[in-house]
Amino acid sequence: MTAHEPVDVLIIGGGQAALATAYFLRRTALSYLLLDEQPHPGGAWQHGWDSLRLFSPATWSSIAGWLMPSPGPGYPPRDAVVDYLSQYEARYQLPVIRPVHVDSVTRQGELFVVQAGSHQWRCRALVSATGTWSKPFIPDYPGSAQFAGQQLHSAHYRNPQAFAGKRVLVVGGGNSGAQILAEVSQVADTLWITPEPPAFLPDDVDGRVLFERATERWKAQQEGRVTDQPVGGLGDIVMVEPVREARERGVLVAERPFQRFTAEGVEWADGRRAAVDAVIWCTGFRPALDHLHDLGVVEADGRLAVDGTRACKQPGLWLVGYGEWTGAASATLIGVTRTARSTVNEIVDALQTT
Ligand code: FAD
After folding, report:
1. Which residues have a Cβ under 8 Å from the Cβ of 10 and sit 6 or more positions away?
2. Residues in contact with 222: Cβ distance below 8 Å, sequence separation at least 6, in sequence order
3. Are 304 and 310 in contact (CB under 8 A)?
4. Ligand 1 centroid, distance to 128 Cα (angstroms)
5. How far is the CA of 78 from the centre of ligand 1 (A)?
6. For 312, what's the count of Cα atoms within 13 Å in the CB-facing half-sphere?
7. Considering only Cβ atoms within 10 Å of each terminal Cβ, which end of the chain, N or C, has fewer?
8. 155 CB less than 6 Å from ligand 1?
9. At a CB cut-off of 8 Å and minimum separation 6, what does 22 contact?
10. What domains are defined for the chain?
11. pLDDT, tens digit, 9 for 90 and up, residues 231-285
């Protein structure tokens, strides 16, 4: 067992949320470290599909302190985001130790004990910024184990080549579903399954407007006002160019879910059947919080009870970047800065009084 020197603050994770939090910690007198399981910088962005692009311009997709360099016309592609996060880490000389997978966190008196294989770190305050990418969600359908075709979650989708000439079901009505459908429908017969009719944003609405709406909701919440801001969140479909092009081809027609799988495909409640070669699950993610289970704070819904980003049932623990339940737009590059800043302010106050 290798026990490392205790630090004031440990951040678990090395994606945008962790880096934004470290940016503010760097401005304090506190000692801090980041532990990230990925061998390289970039968090989940490293695993996005080949044609994945942001849905807002570079200047609207930056984390604290340094604007993302504009990579040319259109919205930044996946690799520009990975480059930006890699350069950001180097620019601020953030102390990220990788690859380190944190297995568990326990409490010993005033300190957290963070176990990663045979290594152990201890800290006074802990920030979990582990995102959701490593917890893809696939809904349970009867008969799925008997289905003879391929099944793939969007987290592991790279490009449409493998689906050429096949009959492909794309399940999920968010940005992943729409963008992957737009691409795969160019080479395969596709069927789009969404639980509700898809919510398409107007063509002129992109991430900027979504962030402005989230900010207005956040301000209203802070001021105790009710706002009539249309909710439009990350889940509503931003009409990026490939999705608009798919609309012109008449591809954006969604059906409601089937009832069960058969060996060859799927069957609806009315007995209608469709032969399917592959299913691409664009059904979202759950927060990656397995490492917190030993603290006994993960609720039945897989989240924690939080006040802002602070864990209600575990003093000294904060959660950053998991989406609306940890702060409006906190799962976006431009949105995470607000909660990263407030989290570090709370940590400084909390550690000053202990
Ligand atoms: P991550 O980027 O997932 O980073 C978490 C890090 O923690 C990872 O490196 C992970 O490996 C590591 N980790 C996890 N568990 C452990 C552990 N136990 N021990 C050690 N390390 C661990 N956002 C935008 O702002 N603009 C967009 O246009 C946009 N488009 C999107 C399109 C799609 C299809 C998707 C899926 C998301 C999009 N997002 C967008 C959201 C954004 O990509 C994610 O929310 C973002 O990656 C979350 O950042 P994070 O730092 O919270 O998590």
Report:
1. 32, 33, 34, 35, 112, 114, 121, 123, 125, 126, 127
2. none
3. no
4. 12
5. 12
6. 9
7. N
8. no
9. 11, 32, 34, 92, 94, 95, 96
10. 2-134+285-352 (3.50.50.60), 144-200+237-281 (3.50.50.60)
11. 555 568 999 999 999 999 999 999 999 999 999 999 999 999 999 999 999 999 9
Q: Which of 53, 59, 134 to mutate to test the pocket of ligand 1 (most atoms within 8 A of CB)?
A: 134
For residue 201, give the DSSP letter.
P
What is d(CA 81, CA 65) in angstroms, rounded to the nearest whole number?
A: 15
Instruction: Count CB atoms within 10 A of the CB of residue 3.
Output: 11
Residue 161 near residue 45, CB atoms below 8 Å: no
**45 CB within 6 A, ligand 1:** yes
Enter the pTM of the model. 0.94
Q: How far is the CA of 18 from the centre of ligand 1 (A)?
A: 10
What the block records as the tokens of 316 is 């000294």
Q: What is the mean pLDDT of residues 283-297?
A: 97
Tokens 């934004």 label which residue?
Answer: 20
| CB-count burial class (<10 Å; 0-12, 13-18, 19+) for 269 | exposed
Q: Among 307, 313, 308, which residue's Cα sits nearest to residue 295?
A: 313
- Local structure of 348: helix, strand or coil: helix
